[in-house]
Structure formats: structure tokens, C-alpha cells
Write a structure and sequence with these properties.
The complex is a heterodimer of chains A (about 120) and B (about 375).
Chain A (H helix, E strand, L loop, with lengths): L18 H14 L8 E4 L15 E8 H10 L5 E8 L15 E8 L6
Parallel strand pairs in A: 1-2, 2-3, 3-4
Chain B lengths: L2 H8 L7 E8 L6 H8 L4 E8 L12 H6 L3 E5 L2 E5 L6 E4 L5 H6 L2 H6 L2 E4 L15 E4 L5 H7 L7 E4 L11 H4 L5 E4 L5 H6 L10 E4 L6 H11 L5 E4 L6 H10 L5 E5 L3 H7 L1 H11 L8 E7 L5 E7 L5 H40 L6 H18 L1
Parallel strand pairs in B: 1-2, 5-6, 6-7, 7-8, 8-9, 9-10, 10-11, 11-12
Antiparallel strand pairs in B: 2-4, 3-4, 12-14, 13-14
Helix pairs in contact in B: 13-14
The chains are: A alpha/beta (about 120), B alpha/beta (about 375).
Chain lengths: ~120, ~375
């Protein structure tokens, strides 16, 4: 597979969260770790494996589930992010932590607070 | 989530042009002025707020800024406030508390997108007209006039009613509900119920969701087979007491292609010993043959065990005769054409022979041979 293109999409959202599949997800991310920083567009089921990756070319990100602190780290590591679609679990206690992004122009945000879950 | 918190969150993104927000929060989110300030530079703003209590009014969202400058339209249903048409709901519940004011507020976009209505009780005042409803559930007593004031019955494809007698209120049903496809009867059908509709046939209805009273089961089923002649999908929610009963139902609805039976423990034993039962089914049924059906266990919405059955379509005898007639006709035409080609070839051959031998006066002989050939041909036929 050729990973040199910058607009590769990665879809891992269909993989369930069982123990065996967790191993599979780890293996997959180990394989993708080389290419992730070069991606332009990324769609993931959650953010637990990508908090420390620098996405210097990422412009479009969709996360089916994410926590506030995870999102803060991702936004810090993706300075050119223009479009973000995220279902965010929000703990009001950590909302004071800034996750500023000067480039973001499109935001699709579903907030699931600790007390209210919306589908 | 409060307005303060959302303002704090959105301040992280000063250059937003397009925003879609889905969240649950407090009624202070219904503040047009603060949203105007937050979204003044945006081109797209769609939201859906599920609020923790009732809110006073949405009038402030109908100003020049919202409707003329931005073309953003807001509507509500119960304690939910949303942009239309982006978040327009497809379902509406109607009850006595449904009042004219909320209906008037309902935007044209919302009405167009609504295709499902559940009438819990008839409203006390006349409401808005909903011409795009296709799925209609009526869970109260009603008159046809009341329903016609609410929905366009000609659009209805799915109808759920309490009693099978309620069907009589839609007479003549081919005119009143001409596009109905699926019918659900919520209460068990009794013999008295079915006696009132026994002379009617509902040919348009192809999917039936029904349960029947345990008494007079044979008589009720016999009437149902007549009234609902063209059922292709049956959902039968009464307990099946024997395999003979199941065979009776499946054989009775002659157009059946799918059936679901909510059957509790009965099918469990059948699954444990499938092969003898399978033979029993094929032996006593007119419909079940060796390879024309299958079934599987499934969990029913009521959490009991049910079975779903698939049947191969029955061969229509009239259709077969028509196909056979066409085939015979085409075959006879082909034979005629072949004979004509042979005849023409022989004729040409004779003509060529007379030319080759320079016999210019052999027409009589040629015609004589041709006549003999034709005679042989018709004798054969």
C-alpha cells in the first residue's frame, strides 16, 4: 500500500473494543504510526492512540468519541486543523483548560456531559 | 451545559465559519442576543438543544438577523429547540395537550419533514394540517372527520389502529386510504369484531400485524384469510398452540412470503428436534415443500422468543398457462418460417437448374414439382 499521498483516510471506527481487538488496534496503530503525521484527513472511533502524534498536515478530523483532555492534546498537535467533527465527553471541571485553535473554521460538536448523554 | 459554558468553549475558536451544535442544557441557552454575538461572522449555524425544562418563547429568534440576514430558522418540539430543516424531526405525538399555539409556531420546513404521527388522544382544538404524514398510529377513539382535519389520508402507507372495527370508519377504504400497505391492529381480534367486517376484502393491505383472541380461533382465522387476501408479510403476536395451527395460518394466507410468530416456548422444543418436525411440516402443509421455506429464531420486541419464516413465492397456475401458450405460439411461428425458407430454397434451386441447362420452357415441369412439394408439406402438417 502506498502511504505517500497526504489525503489518505483511515477508518478504524468499525473495530469493536474487545480485548483481542484492542491488541489488533494496537498492531494497526503501530503500522500506521509512520503515516499518521502525513495525513490530511483522518476519521477515528476514538482518540486514545493519537494524543501524542504530531499531525502537521492534518486538516480534517472526525472522532466518534473523545474526552476533553484528549481533544486539547490533539488540537495542540494539529496546528492546521480546519474541520473538526467530534462527539465530546465533557467534564465541566476541566473546561478551564484552553484548547484554542486559530485555524478551525468548521466545527460539528456533540457534547455528552457526565450527566446527559445525547445520541 | 449553560450559555456561559458554551460561550467559554467557543471562544477557543475565533475564526469559526460553520458550526453544528448538539447538546443538552439549561433554558438560558435560549438567548438570541448572545447567540447573535457568537455567530455574527458565521455562514452556517445549526443546533439542537434538549433543555431541562420548558422555555418561554422563540419569538426572539424570528428577528431580521435570524430570518432575513442569515436565513436561519428555529423551531421547537416539547423541550427541544432546533434549527430547521437541518434538525427537523420526522415524528410527532398528538394528544389533548397539543395546542394550536405550538402548531402555529411550527415552521413549514418541519411540517414537510414530518412523516410519522402518533395520536395518543384527540386534541381539544383544531391543530395544524400535516399533509406529509405516511405512518399514522391512532391510539384512541376517533372519527374520520377528526383524522381528515389532521392528515391527508391518501398519503397513508402504514396505519395502526386499536380495533379491527376501526377499519370500517375508513370506508370506502379504496378511496379514503388508497395507498395503505401495512396495517397493525393493537387489540386482539375477537369473533364479534371480525363478524362486523367479514364481508369486506382489503386487497391493498400486504403487511398485517395482528393478534387474535384464543376463543374461536378457527373461525376468526377463516374470516381473516378472506378479508386480508393479499397479505405477503404477517406478524402474528398471539401464542401458537400447535404446529397444526402454524400450518393452518401459513396455508391460509396464500400470498405469504414472510411471517413472524411470537410463540414463546413452543418453538423452542421444535428447534431442539428440528428434523422430525420439519418432516411433519412438509407432510401436512400444502404450502411447505422440501426446499421452499426456512425459518430462524429471533427475539421479539416483547423480549419473548419468536420465529421468522421465509417462503418461496407460490407458482401461479394461470401465469404458467399464459407462458406455455406464448411458447407454443412462438414455436408454431418458427416452424412455419422454417418451412417457408425450405420452400423458397427449393423454388430457387429449381429455377437455377432450368437456367443452367438452358431449358427456357420448363416452367410447367417446375410448377409441377413445386405443387408436389407443397402437397407433401401440407400432408405432413
Amino acid at each position: 500500500m502506498n502511504f505517500t499521498q497526504s489525503h489518505i483516510n483511515i477508518y478504524l471506527h468499525a473495530i469493536p473494543l474487545g480485548i483481542q481487538n484492542r491488541q489488533l488496534r494496537t498492531i494497526l496503530f503501530d503500522s500506521y504510526i509512520q503515516v499518521l503525521p502525513r495525513l490530511n484527513r483522518l476519521y477515528l472511533s476514538d482518540a486514545c492512540y493519537i494524543r501524542t502524534i504530531k499531525f502537521l498536515q492534518l486538516h480534517h478530523l472526525k472522532l466518534a468519541y473523545c474526552q476533553y483532555d484528549e481533544l486539547k492534546d490533539i488540537i495542540q498537535h494539529a496546528p492546521f486543523l480546519e474541520s473538526l467533527n467530534v462527539r465530546l465527553e465533557l467534564d465541566h471541571s476541566n473546561m478551564h483548560n484552553s484548547l484554542a485553535s486559530s485555524q478551525l473554521i468548521r466545527l460539528h460538536l456533540t457534547i455528552m456531559s457526565k450527566y446527559f448523554y445525547i445520541c | 451545559m449553560s450559555m456561559n459554558q458554551i460561550e467559554q468553549f467557543l471562544s477557543n475558536f475565533p475564526h469559526l465559519k460553520q458550526l453544528v451544535l448538539i447538546l443538552r442544557g439549561t433554558t438560558d441557552l435560549i438567548d438570541d442576543y448572545r447567540w447573535e454575538k457568537l455567530t455574527s461572522s458565521m455562514t452556517i449555524f445549526n443546533f439542537k438543544f434538549d433543555l431541562d425544562s420548558n422555555f418561554p418563547s422563540l419569538d426572539s429568534f424570528r428577528t431580521l438577523f435570524w430570518q432575513k440576514e442569515k436565513h436561519w430558522y428555529i423551531d421547537s418540539q416539547n423541550t427541544s429547540v432546533f434549527s430547521v430543516p437541518y434538525f427537523s424531526p420526522v415524528h410527532i405525538d398528538i394528544d389533548t395537550r397539543s395546542h394550536r399555539q405550538s402548531a402555529i409556531l411550527m415552521h413549514e420546513f418541519t411540517v414537510k419533514k414530518l412523516n410519522s404521527m402518533n395520536i395518543i388522544s384527540m386534541p381539544k382544538v383544531q391543530l395544524l394540517y400535516y399533509p406529509y404524514i405516511k405512518n399514522l398510529s391512532i391510539n384512541c377513539s376517533f372519527s374520520l372527520a377528526n383524522i381528515q382535519h389532521l392528515v391527508d389520508l391518501k398519503q397513508i402507507k402504514y396505519l395502526s389502529i386499536l380495533s379491527i372495527n376501526d377499519l370500517l370508519k375508513f370506508q370506502p377504504y379504496k378511496l379514503i386510504i388508497p395507498n395503505i400497505y401495512e396495517l397493525k391492529i393493537r387489540n386482539s381480534v375477537t369473533f364479534d369484531n371480525i363478524e362486523q367486517i367479514k364481508d369486506y376484502q382489503f386487497e391493498k393491505i400486504q403487511k398485517l400485524n395482528i393478534s387474535i383472541n384464543n376463543n374461536d380461533t378457527d373461525l376468526i382465522l377463516k374470516r381473516l384469510f378472506f378479508c386480508f387476501l393479499h397479505i405477503e408479510y404477517l406478524i402474528y403476536l398471539s401464542p401458537i398452540d400447535s404446529i397444526e395451527r402454524l400450518i393452518q395460518i401459513i396455508d391460509g394466507f396464500t400470498h405469504l412470503l414472510n411471517a413472524t410468530f411470537d410463540s414463546g416456548h413452543f418453538f423452542f422444543s421444535m428447534t431442539m428436534f428440528p428434523y422430525p418436525r420439519f418432516n411433519f411440516i412438509t407432510q401436512y402443509s400444502q404450502r411447505f415443500k422440501e426446499n421452499n421455506f426456512t425459518y430462524r429464531l429471533q427475539r421479539m420486541p416483547s423480549h419473548s422468543i419468536g420465529t421468522h419464516w421465509w417462503f418461496a413465492p407460490q407458482v401461479n397456475v394461470n401465469y404458467t398457462i399464459k407462458i406455455l401458450s406464448i411458447f407454443i405460439f412462438l414455436f408454431s411461428v418458427a416452424i412455419t418460417i422454417i418451412f417457408d425458407i425450405i420452400e423458397f430454397t427449393v423454388y430457387l434451386a429449381l429455377d437455377k437448374t432450368s437456367f443452367c441447362f438452358g431449358l427456357t420452357a420448363h416452367n410447367d415441369l417446375k410448377n409441377c414439382v413445386y405443387r408436389e412439394f407443397m402437397k407433401t408439406k401440407f400432408d405432413c402438417i
